[in-house]
Amino acid sequence: MVGGRHRQLPLSGLTVIDVSTLFAGPLAAGILGDFGADVIKVEHPKGDPLRSYGPMCGDFSLAWKVVNRNKKSILLDLHEPGDRDAFLRLSGHADVVIENFRPGTLEKWGLGADVLTARNPRLVLTRVTAFGQDGPYADRPGFGTLAEAMSGLAAMSGEADGPPLLPAFPLGDAVAGLNAVCAVLMALRARDRLGNGQVADVSITESLLGLLGFQIAAFDKTGASPVRQGNRSANSAPRNVYRCSDGTWVAVSASARSVAERVMRLIGRAELIDEPWFAAGRLRARHHEVDRAVAEWIAERDRPSVIAAFRAAQAAVAPVYEFSDVLADPHFTERGSVIEVPDEDIGSVRMPGPAFRLSSTPGRVLSAGPRPGQHAKEVLSALGTDRVEPRVQAHR
User: Which residue out of 173, 201, 291, 345 is catalytically annotated?
Assistant: First the structure.
């Protein structure tokens, strides 16, 4: 929800310094902010790269407005001694610092884990990189795209006769961001028990490997690599997207045998249920006549008719939505899945609400991503200084 009383939030009183850029680290800090953490976004005076990324509304990046919601912005150049000192003092009063510089960068600036934790032993320093803090690839520059390639995800995605397929959005960063939130909360729980903070090392590549875990186990024991097969599955059928007679699309999934049987009865192919291979999903997936039969039946009907028939048969189906459909969907509207957040720069903007619901301490979104240095005076004065450099005021 938008608004909500601050005292109801589970992370109220937690201070997070977000000195990361682009997606994984900022996403993690944003989720913490949704649930009450006081998140201070530290940007370089030249501006965070996300401010010029993706679709724009006038001069303002919509990605920035969403990813950096609920945050306060200050500008610090960590190459400069005075700004490094301000950062050190900030981290001395913080619970969490989230960074995603190449390993060794903070150390080069005299802000390594040893320095930060010596000043603040209870600090949880969360370090998000493509390959982790050690190992042969640690010092390589990397983004989520490289992790999506090296994790095996791209190799198993795409059509059978096509090239490996990368996700259309920063999937690796999103997964790593969620893992970083888990790491922060676990480290804070350990701090409650043991008294000290620690370093959380989050790798985007390892985050994706975790998602693909059973695929790796299957290769280890059988030697069989996943093959690209578009939207079909090697483990169940029918499972695909299908075009309706009105040109729209639906997605069907029948991982459970009982659901697959309902689909076959619905489309008039109940005889397939008696085939010896039908009982196992991986065997159904090898018999393409199952998928073809579903595709042919759906192709003769418009989407409302298909969805109504599937629902009457208690078979799993969903429309393939465009974003216009998402915003108009009554279920998403009633639950507040998409919320409207006021913003002084662009009027207001619709964005996803908090990612999950807590019955007693729900999350909230109070503001979209801030202007550069918007909260410099507020944040720095709390450290005992009212230093607000002209560059902070001038940068837009």
Answer: 173
Closest CA to 389 of 153, 6, 75: 75
SS3 204: helix
For 160-210, how does the pLDDT look when each residue is reduced to its tens digit (9 = 90+)? 999 999 999 999 999 999 999 999 999 999 999 999 999 999 999 999 999
Structure tokens at 351: 């964005």
* Inter-residue contact 217 to 144 (CB < 8 Å): no
Run of H or E residues at 340? strand 338-343
Annotated catalytic residue 192: no
- Output b/e per residue, 358-394; b: 16+ Cβ within 10 A: eeeebbbbebbbbebbbebbebbeeeeeeebbeebee
* Single-letter amino acid code for the residue at 208: L
Across 294-305, average pLDDT: 98
Task: Please count the other Cβ atoms lying within 10 Å of the Cβ belonging to residue 103.
Answer: 17
What the block records as the tokens of 87 is 């950062």
What are the structure tokens assigned to 99, written together? 């960074």
Amino acid at 340: E
d(CA 68, CA 46): 17
Give tens-digit pLDDT for 329-345.
999 999 999 999 999 99
Q: Where are the alpha helices (DSSP H) in 195-347?
A: 204-211, 213-222, 257-266, 281-284, 288-299, 303-312, 323-328, 330-335
pTM above 0.90, yes or no: yes
Q: Is 66 left (phi over 0), alpha (psi -120 to 50) or beta?
A: alpha
Q: How far is CA 111 from the centre of its chain?
A: 28
- CA nearest to 191, candidates 244, 256, 117: 117
Which long-range contacts does 378-385 make (Cβ < 8 Å, 24+ apart)?
378/72, 379/40, 379/72, 379/74, 379/90, 380/74, 380/86, 382/93, 383/86, 383/89, 383/90, 383/93, 385/86
Tokens 């930060």 correspond to 116
